[in-house]
Design goal:
mainly alpha; 63% helix; three-stranded antiparallel β-sheet; single chain; 416 residues; globular
Length: 416
């Protein structure tokens, strides 16, 4: 028993949340992978593959948690070099998924550079903000935000060209980290104003230039797009080739006119329509694991829309339980950060927790129709390769911080 306890070191609550999410992942990905089962003609193939990824991810988490937190600083320059190198590589010679260059294939394996970039930016930001805290305890130095943006904004731009939702997610997390680190509010206010201006100009360009000539990927599964090309096209192409997809998603989500059930064209809102059917047919306790019907219609049932399948199978109660697991993860990270003697581990654990929880929030909001379709998987639950392993590494880093933070707890005087 002592050997097992030494293996699963660090915060026990985070370990419990992590393992619960892994169990839910294995069950729901196996249930939602009917299309993969049909293609492979092997009933157990999706389960074996995903279970292997989860087990390898747990191994990565265990290895990472045994690395002292201070050593994370040493690898930051190398990670920055890898991040910017692979982000440029994927734009020039990456593999196309859903009409966007998002993955790199090496020796038969593929990975998404944006997944590495997210953790690297959080790590670099935590170092900058911790190093530039004022000695008088009044927050970060006035130059801290400039240094953070010099590192982060190039990565956000490179990611945003092909994966806008991930770029927005990363920028949101970095902004919250600067707020937590007490960067001067005047600077944060100016950044928010500049951001609002950029968003306004961007939306104008997207709605103006994003001329849709054919239907988008709502009706056509991503696998079909990979074979026959992206169905969204923009006149002129070039750097604006993703504008049509973004425009279509914005207009579909912002439509305010009510449509009766008999007039609703599910072929034009394929993913959203079937996700709504899955949720509406769930009830309080759901249909039971493995009894989903909409998994056969949703192209990304095992990834982008897995939360809809979770609701369909384990009901509203199960959906709320999943939400609470992410909330517990965030609050536990905040408690660990509060025990840290140094700023770097505190900013790092909060940044990684925000990265996971905000991404989960975006995925769940898309699944229930509160946001346009973005393509963000549900972290630690959705089927994935690179994302699953790297998210497990994030958990390992949080556990590593929890070990060092535990040493800073005040020693209570013995009672007389």
């Amino acid at each position: 028993m002592n050997k097992i306890g030494n293996l699963f070191k660090g915060d026990k609550v985070i370990w419990m949340v992590f393992l619960f999410l892994c169990i839910i992942s294995v069950v729901e990905v196996f249930s939602a992978s009917s299309t993969l089962t049909y293609k492979s003609q092997n009933y157990l193939s999706p389960l074996i593959y995903h279970s292997g990824m989860i087990l390898f991810g747990v191994f990565v988490a265990i290895v990472t948690l045994n690395i002292p937190c201070r050593y994370f600083k040493i690898v930051t320059p190398l990670l920055l070099f890898i991040t910017f190198g692979t982000l440029l590589w994927v734009l020039i010679g990456g593999e196309s998924i859903n009409g966007a260059n998002r993955v790199i294939k090496i020796a038969g394996f593929t990975f998404q550079p944006s997944e590495i970039a997210k953790g690297t930016m959080v790590l670099a930001t935590a170092q900058i903000l911790s190093a530039m805290q004022r000695t008088d305890g009044k927050g970060a130095d006035d130059k801290a935000m400039k240094y953070v943006l010099c590192i982060v904004m190039p990565a956000v731009f490179l990611i945003g060209i092909e994966n806008l939702s991930t770029a927005c997610l990363l920028f949101m997390v970095i902004f919250l980290m600067m707020f937590i680190a007490r960067v001067p509010m005047v600077q944060l206010g100016k950044l928010m104003g500049a951001g609002a201006l950029v968003v306004g100009v961007f939306l104008t360009l997207v709605l103006t230039l994003g001329s849709i000539e054919k239907v988008d990927d709502e009706k056509n599964p991503p696998t079909a797009q990979a074979s026959f090309g992206n169905k969204d096209e923009i006149k002129g192409g070039g750097v604006f080739h993703r504008f049509a997809t973004w425009r279509n998603r914005i207009l579909k989500h912002s439509g305010t006119s009510k449509v009766s059930a008999k007039d609703y064209d599910i072929d034009k809102n394929f993913q959203v329509g079937h996700a709504n059917i899955a949720i509406a047919s769930s009830g309080v306790i759901g249909k039971g694991p493995g009894n989903s019907t909409e998994r056969d219609y949703l192209p990304q049932a095992f990834s982008d829309f897995i939360y809809a399948i979770i609701i369909e199978e384990i009901g509203i109660a199960g959906a709320i339980a999943v939400v609470f697991l992410y909330i517990i993860l965030l609050f536990r990270a905040a408690r660990i950060a509060g025990r840290c003697e140094n700023n770097f581990p505190a900013f790092l654990v909060l940044g990684l927790a925000l990265l996971l929880v905000i991404q989960a929030t975006i995925n769940m909001m898309v699944a229930v129709g509160l946001m346009p379709v973005t393509g963000q998987p549900l972290p630690l639950i959705s089927k994935g390769g690179t994302s699953t392993i790297i998210n497990c590494a994030y958990i390992g880093a949080m556990l590593s911080v929890s070990r060092s933070a535990k040493q800073s707890e005040p020693v209570q005087a013995p009672s007389k």
